[in-house]
């Protein structure tokens, strides 16, 4: 049986084992605590290092708003040392104007509200203003709740934003000062920017536009000016386009919009910039100039140019209708007597009254034109029968039996008319008008105050024409024709720059036959082809003789006229090239003159032919400019060097101011297209003075010199002096 001592020994051994185990546990816990302290110390050192390396201020505020922790970035930002700031209120560095709002932010943050991206204005130790962005959150620590966060220096950004705002306001002022309507639309056609002029044009506040499309601003679809601005959407082609609009006051206005796609690298989006200019005044002036160019100033009737155009159109329409047209040429009998007796003012009033009387005798679709002076023309289109034209002529005669009141006096003028019927679409307008003119003179010969219907047999000219054709054919074959040369000089100093070669025919029986008589025969019979080649060959050869014998300028040019018949020849350009090579003439010393009426016939083919001539190197001139068909439209496509203004406009200088306007317009247009301007038919010093004032390049006419034979040209060149008076 165990004794008490045995029990005591067992208890003692048990206690000893327990103590050993306890000591072992204490040693283990102590080691863990030591390791934790080292880890915590490492973390604290690492955190401190990170905090010190941070460029932004890391802070901790206690519940009273006092700095508990600040990294060294605080000193770099404010100039205050960390030690001198710890324990002090954060409000001490906040601008006084921001302290109330800053304290409110602090108290809300202590209640757990987020504080992200809030800006505060502070003062540095040196008194400099700074803007900081605050990001902080509420955290619980050993000493209770505190705010931990970051202060980022936003001063540069704020100043950049303020500068950007000022710059934006500055640019906005510039845009709003611009009288043109400026706007920007996005990919969805919504307006992003509208200046004051655009909003005023549309009658709406600028803010109303932003983010809206034109159709949103007026869902009815009838949005007037907006419809023009809406056309500047990115999906549509950029460029320049005009539009006729109705503004908010109901007035008709013209806008010209320039639009251009733009890309913003900032937003990564595409936009369209549009600038709309009010061109109403310009359009009105263009309309007035166009009207002046095509209408008679005194009567407002179509002039010769417009009348010729309408006759051409009427003849072309005959292909569709197969119904005849007619032209009536009308001349006021003894108009000069009225002018001399009652004065030019009364003469003008008489012409106006005659115009009004003529308009009452024709249908609304017919054309009454003033052809010049006291000559009028009437175009009757789409007649049921040829005799309808005679009924109109009779009606006109009947109407002039009633007196006109001019300057308080009754005047009963009489008129002589010629009627020509157009039956074929292949008939030329010039021919139809010429026939009417021939018939009119027949009526005058018959005693005036009547009319005559053109008949090819009404005069003996047809027989004479046949004889002349045969004689002309022989004259060309036998070399009986000669050339005269009319100088073309610089307007400013009279320097001779070129000579225009003009064919002359001295008939053994009839004497000198005027070109106006034999050139049309050559045109109609095809004789113009050999005649034209002879003119070019002879003129080039004569030029070489002038240079060799008369000391002419080696750059002297020769100008020759070329007809439609010649241009239509397939080998025309090669023939020109051969003659230039044969005579040793450089192409740049030859100028080919063509009348703009050539463009009435197969314009595209003529444009190709002109391009080939230009490629050859010869110079090109448009002769009789202002009297042809669709002049401006085709002139833009022609490789032309020179525009020769028709003598008709020159003859009207000092008589009709409108013709001076036309000349000025042609000169301006030619300048803009890089062309030179020559004015032909200069016969008075007043005309020359005006042309110099209008800054034309070259002049030609009897005032300068009449066409000269080759010997007289050589003598003039030897003298070497300007021929301008």
Automatic annotation (TrEMBL):
GO BP of this protein: regulation of DNA-templated transcription
CDD domains, sorted: EAL (cd01948), GGDEF (cd01949), PAS (cd00130)
Protein name in the entry: GGDEF domain-containing protein
Organism: Capsulimonas corticalis
């Amino acid at each position: 049986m165990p004794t008490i001592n045995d029990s005591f020994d067992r208890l003692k051994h048990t206690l000893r084992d327990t103590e050993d185990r306890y000591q072992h546990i204490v040693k283990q816990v102590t080691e863990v605590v030591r390791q934790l302290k080292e880890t915590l110390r490492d973390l604290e050192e690492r955190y401190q290092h990170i905090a010190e390396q941070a460029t932004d201020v890391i802070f901790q505020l206690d519940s009273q708003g006092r700095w508990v922790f600040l990294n060294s970035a605080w000193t770099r930002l404010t100039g205050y040392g960390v030690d001198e700031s710890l324990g002090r209120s954060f409000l001490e560095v906040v601008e006084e104007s921001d302290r109330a709002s800053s304290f409110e932010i602090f108290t809300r943050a202590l209640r757990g509200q987020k504080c992200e991206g809030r800006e505060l204005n502070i003062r540095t130790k040196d008194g400099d203003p700074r803007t900081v962005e605050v990001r902080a959150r509420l955290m619980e620590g050993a000493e209770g709740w505190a705010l931990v966060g970051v202060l980022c220096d936003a001063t540069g950004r704020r100043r950049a934003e303020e500068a950007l705002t000022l710059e934006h306001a500055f640019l906005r002022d510039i845009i709003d000062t611009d009288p043109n309507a400026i706007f920007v639309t996005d990919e969805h056609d919504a307006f992003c920017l509208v200046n004051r002029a655009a909003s005023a044009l549309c009658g709406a506040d600028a803010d109303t536009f932003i983010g809206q499309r034109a159709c949103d601003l007026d869902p009815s679809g009838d949005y007037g000016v907006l419809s023009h601005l809406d056309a500047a959407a990115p999906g549509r082609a950029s460029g320049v386009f005009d539009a006729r609009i109705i503004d908010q006051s109901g007035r008709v206005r013209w806008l010209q919009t320039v639009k251009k796609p733009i890309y913003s690298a900032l937003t990564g989006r595409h936009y369209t910039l549009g600038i709309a200019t009010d061109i109403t005044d310009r359009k009105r002036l263009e309309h007035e100039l166009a009207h002046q160019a095509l209408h008679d100033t005194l009567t407002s009737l179509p002039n010769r140019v417009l009348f010729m155009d309408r006759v051409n159109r009427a003849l072309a329409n005959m292909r569709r209708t197969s119904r005849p047209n007619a032209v009536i040429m009308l001349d006021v009998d003894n108009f000069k007597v009225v002018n001399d007796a009652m004065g030019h003012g009364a003469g003008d009033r008489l012409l106006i009254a005659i115009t009004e009387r003529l308009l009452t005798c024709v249908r609304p679709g017919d054309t009454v034109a003033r052809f010049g002076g006291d000559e009028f023309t009437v175009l009757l289109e789409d007649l049921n029968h040829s005799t309808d034209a005679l009924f109109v002529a009779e009606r006109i005669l009947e109407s002039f039996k009633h007196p006109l009141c001019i300057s308080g006096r009754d005047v009963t003028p009489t008129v002589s008319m010629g009627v020509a019927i157009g039956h074929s679409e292949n008939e030329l307008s010039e021919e139809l008008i010429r026939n009417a003119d021939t018939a009119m003179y027949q009526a005058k010969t018959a005693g005036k105050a009547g009319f005559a219907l053109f008949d090819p047999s009404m005069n003996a000219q047809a027989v004479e024409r046949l004889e002349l054709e045969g004689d002309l054919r022989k004259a060309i074959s036998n070399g009986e024709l000669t050339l005269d040369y009319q100088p073309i000089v610089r307007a400013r100093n009279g320097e001779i720059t070129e000579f225009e070669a003009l064919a002359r025919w001295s008939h053994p029986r009839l004497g000198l036959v005027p070109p106006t008589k034999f050139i049309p025969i050559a045109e109609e019979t095809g004789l113009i082809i050999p005649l034209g080649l002879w003119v070019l060959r002879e003129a080039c050869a004569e030029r070489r003789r002038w240079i060799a014998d008369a000391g002419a300028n080696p750059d002297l040019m020769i100008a020759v006229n070329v007809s439609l018949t010649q241009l239509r020849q397939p080998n025309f350009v090669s023939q020109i090239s051969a003659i230039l090579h044969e005579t040793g003439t450089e192409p740049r010393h030859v100028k080919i003159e063509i009348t703009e009426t050539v463009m009435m016939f197969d314009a595209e083919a003529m444009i190709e032919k002109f391009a080939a001539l230009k490629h050859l190197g010869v110079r090109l001139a448009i002769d009789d400019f202002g009297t042809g068909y669709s002049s401006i439209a085709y002139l833009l496509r022609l490789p032309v060097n020179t525009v020769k203004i028709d003598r008709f406009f020159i003859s009207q200088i000092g008589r009709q101011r409108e013709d001076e306007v036309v000349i000025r317009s042609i000169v301006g247009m030619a300048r803009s297209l890089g062309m030179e301007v020559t004015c032909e038919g200069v016969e008075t010093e007043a005309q020359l003075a005006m042309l110099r004032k209008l800054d034309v390049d070259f002049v030609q006419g009897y005032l300068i010199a009449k066409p000269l034979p080759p010997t007289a040209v050589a003598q003039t060149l030897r003298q070497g002096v300007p021929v301008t008076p």
